[in-house]
Protein 1
Amino acid sequence: MDKEALAAWRARSDAERAEPLAVVRVGGPDEEILRRPARPVRHVNRSVRTLIERMRATMYHENGVGLAAPQVGVDQRVLVADAGDHHCVLVNPEVVLATGTQTEPLEGCLSIPDLLGEVERSETIRVRGLDANGREVWVDASGYFARVLQHEVDHLDGILFTDRASRIVPVRPETKLDVVFMGTADFGARVLRQLVAADVIPVLVVTQPDRPAGRGLHLQSTPVRVAADEAGLEVVTPPGPRDADLWQRLRDLEPDVVVSAAYGGILPGRVLDLPRLGAVNVHPSLLPRYRGPDPVRRALWNGDAETGVTIQRMARQVDAGDILRQEVVPVDPDDNAGALTERLAEIGGRLLLRALRDLATERAAPQSQDAASATQAPKIRPEEEVSDFEPPAAVLAARARALAPRPSLRTPGGLKLLEVRALAESSSEAPGTVVGLRKDQGLAVATGQGVLLLRRVQAPGGRPLDALEWARGRRLTVGQRLE
Ligand code: ZN
C-alpha cells in the first residue's frame, strides 16, 4: 500500500467509527431541506468537522459514493465524496470550471433509493472550496468523480438528479427480467431463495425429477423443487436438459436470461443461445480453477486456504464461460464441504443478483478465462472415500473435511471420520496407533506423518459419537491400533 492509499484507508476507518446519520429521503417527512439552497459555512470549526466525520460514516454505511449535508438534514454547504480512486471533503464548494460532457453511467442518489437516471454532466470540472481544516483547496476531477461532485454540489443548490435526468429507470432493473432458473441440489436451492427474497421471481424453475431416497425409497423432491414450491413458483422436472417439451416451453417463454446453479446436467447450445442476455451459471470456485462437478470438495481435498464463487456466462465448453463477477472466499480451518457450500451459495446468490443487474443495465463487463491456468474438479471417486492412516495427518484432515458431512472419509474397517484435526506434533508410532485419549479433545492417532485428532466418529451400523465416547465403549487404550 502506498502512502496515499494508507492515508485514505485510515481516514476511512476513522469515518467508519463515527456514528452514521439518518438519510433524508425524497417523499419522506423532511424532504423540504433537499429542495432549497443550503447556507454557507461561516467557520470550519469542531462541530463542522464532527459533521464531516458523521457524513462520511453515513456515506460508507449506506454504500454511497457521495453525500451532501442537506441529505442528513443539515442546512450547510458541506459535501463528502469517495468514488474509490478519489475522495474529498469540501466546505462551501464552488464549480469554477467545467468542460466536456458525459452521460454514462446511470446516476443514483441515497435520497432517492428507488430510481436511477441518465444525466448529462460535465466531463471535467475544477472545484474550489475549503477542506476539513478550513484551508482553501482546489479539486480537479474528471469522469465518474466529476459526476459525483456535480451531483453533490447540485444538492447544495437544492437540485436533485431527477430534475436533470433525460430518462429515469427503477433502481433494481433485475426485478424486471424474465428469468428461468435451473437447479437441483441444496446449493441451487439457496441461490433460488435469494433471488426470490430480492424480488427476482423466476417465470419457470427447472429441476431434476423426484428420486427414490431414504430407507423406504419414497420419492423425494430436489431441494430446488422444495424451495420453488415454498415460493409458489411454477416448476417442471424434465428427464434432462435436452428434453423436447422443455425446449418448447423455453421457446414459448422467451426468457431474458437462464440462470443455472447446481442443476446437474449440461445445457445444450440452443438453450444457451436462446435468452436475450444469455445463460449464466453460479459456480463455487475461482474459475478457471476447479472446472467440473465437485469444486467445493476438491478445494478442501487439496487443502486450499481460499476458494470463491464465479458468475460465468455459460459457454459450450463446460465452466469455460466469460466471467461476469467473481469473489474470493477464505476457507475456515474448520470448514467442511457442507458448511463451505452453504457459505458459497449465500455469496453466490448475492453475486448473481449483481451480475443480473449488470446484464439488465447493459453494464456487464465479461472477462474471458485464462484457459492455460484451468484445473479440473472431477467428482470424488468411491475409492477416494477410504483411507488408512498412512498419509500425513494434514492430508487426512483435508480429505475428511472434503467428505463431510457426507459421504465421510472411512478407514478400511469402515470407521467414518466425521470430524478430525491435524495436530502440530509428531509420533514415531506405526500409523493407526492410538497415542492418546485426550480429555475434552479427542482420540490422538499416529499417521504416516504427524498426529491426527479424531473428534467425532461413526462405527459401521452405529450412530455418530464423540470419539472418546466411542473409544471408551471399545475399551481402546494407548498403543492399540485402529483399522
Ligand atoms: Zn444524491
Protein 2
Amino acid sequence: MSEKPLAILKSRLDERGYDKLSRINNGLLHQFVADYIKLCNPDEIFVSTGSSEDLEYIREKAIKNGEEERLSITGHTVHFDNYHDQGRDKEHTGILVPEGVELGPAIKTKPRDEALKEIHEIMKGIMVGKELYISFYCLGPADSRFSIPAIQLTDSSYVAHSENILYRQGYGEFVKRGPEATFYKFVHSQGELDGRRTSKNLGKRRIYIDPEDNIVYSANTQYGGNTIGLKKLAMRLAINQGSMQGWLTEHMLVMGVHGPEGRVTYFTGAFPSLCGKTSTAMLEGETIVGDDIAYLRKVNDEVRAVNVEKGMFGIIQGINSKDDPIQWKSLHSPGEIILSNVLITEDENAHWIEKDDDVPPKGHNHSGEWHIGKKDEKGKEITCSHPNARFTIALELCENLDPKLDAPEGVVIGAIVYGGRDSDTWVPVEEALDWEHGIITKGASLESETTAATLGKEGIRVFNPMSNLDFLSIPIGRYIQNNLDFGKDLNKTPRIFSVNYFLKDENANFLNEKTDKKVWYKWMELRVNDGVEAIETPTGRVPKYGDLKKLFGDVLGKDYPKSDYEEQFMIRVPENLAKIDRIKEIYGTRVSDTPQVVFKVLEEQRAKLLGARERFGNYISPDKFAR
Ligand code: SPV
Ligand code: MN
C-alpha cells in the first residue's frame, strides 16, 4: 500500500510546518502537498499561515537568497527575471485537454496525458537544494460567495513574496472549510538558476493548466505572469468553473467613478496588457477596487463584481509625476513594493522608461551591468528598463483605495468598458446601443496592437475578445454566448462602452493626452445615470460637443476646441467597415462555435455604415446624426 499523505508530510516537514498543515482537515490537500514534495524533492519546506511572522520570513528569504535586492527607499526591493523571460510565454502555455475535447484553433492546448507526463518529468527533483514555500490564499474577499481558496507551492521566495502582496491570505478559509474546501492548486519551480539568480533552463519553460484537476504547473521561469499562480493561471481555471456555474471571470479593472453630489457608479473595464488598464483604475479623482481580474455574478438581478486580488502587478513604463500622480507618490513613499526589471543605479535608486528626469548613464538591469547604448546579442539596443517592467504593491498603500475592496457582496456594476490599442478606427468614447450590441461590436470585436507584455513582435493588430483571449480555457464561441446570456433578466443592465486612448492623426501623433480619459469616465458616469444626452451614430452613441467642452473645463481646466472634437469623434466609415470584415473573417474561420447572432449584429452595423456613407461620405461628423 502506498504511504499515507500525513505520514509523508510528517517525515518531510519540521514540527511547526507539520502542525500548520495537519490543522487543515482536508485529505485531498494533504495528498496534493505530499505528492509534490515527493516529486520535486526540496531540501527544506516552509509553511506560511500568513501570520506577520511568516510573511516576514518569506520577505527576508527573498533578500538572503538573492532573488530580491533592497533599494534606497525603505521597504522597496527589486527582482530581475532572465533577459529572455520578460513576458508571458504564450508558446509554452497550454490548457490540458483530454482526448476528444476541442477548444478551437485560437486557444493553445496540449494533449493532457502527454503534457502531464512531460511536466512531471521536468519537475522530478527540480527542488533539490532548494526551499519550498507553501502558502494559502483566498481569491476574492473572505466569507464571500465569489471566493475560491487556493494553495501555492513554489521554490521562489520572490513568487511567494509577490503573492503575499497581491492576494488575501487564505489559511483561515482552509481551516474553516475543512473537508468541504474545493480549491485551486499551483506548483511552481524556477528551476536551475544562473549566476544572477535568474531561471536558466528557458528551453524547458512550461506553463500547463489542467482544468480537470484544478492544478496549474509552471517550471523554469520567474516572470510573474508565468509564475504567480493566483494571477493569470488561476484565471484560466476560474473561466472554466464560471462557465459551468453561470458567472464570469474577466480581465477587468473595477473602479468607482465619482459623479455629482457624492454619487459613485462602479465600472469594470477590460483592456489588453499595456493599454492603460492600471492607469485607468488609478485615475485621479476616482477610487480603485482592482486593476486586473474580476469575478462577476448576478445577485438579485444585478451585476456585482469583486476584485480577485488585493494588490497590483502594474506596468511601470511611462509612469511620471504629471500623468500618474497617485502611482508616482506611492512609488516614492516607504512601503512594501517590489520593482521588477527596472534600472538600478549605484546608489540603489530605480529608473524606468519615461520616468521624470534623464536616464542615468549606467547601472544594472534585466540585462546585467548596463550603460546607455548597450546592445543585446542581436544588436538591439537595450532600454534602461524592460517595457514590461512592473511594480508590485498592495492596494492599501494607495490613497485612492475604494472602501468596498473587501465587501463580500462586491459592488454593483453600472458600466462595462472595453478598450484596446487602436490607432485609426474607434472614437475615444462611445456607448453601445444595448447589451447585445455592446458585447458583440465592442467586447467580442476588441482588437489591439501587440505590446511587450507577451513575448514576440510588438505593434501588430490582433484580435482579443474582451481582452481575455490569452486566458480562455473554454471555446471562444461559448465564452461569447456566456457573456450574451449574462446580460439577460437583469433589473438594470450595465451600459457597455468602448474607449480608445490611442487614436492617432495621419502623422501618427496621438489625438488625445493621457489625462483626457478622466473626461471620458465622467461622461460615461453621467450617461449611466441619465445625466446627459448623446448622439446616435451607426457605431453607437457618442458625446455631444457641448457636454465634453463643459467637462474638459470642469475636470481638466482645459479648453476643448470644436476642431479637436471633430477630428476625434468623426465616424471613420472605411476603417469601421474593414474592421467588421476582419472580425467576421475571424469568427467565421478561427472560431468554430460562433453564435449566429454575432454575424447578424455585425451585418446590421455594416448596413448602417453603408447607409451613412451614401448620405455623408467616408468621414462623418457626429453632428450629421444629431437630431
Ligand atoms: C497582463 O499582462 O495582463 C498582466 C500581467 O496583468 S501578467 O501577470 O503577465 O498577465
Ligand atoms: Mn492583466
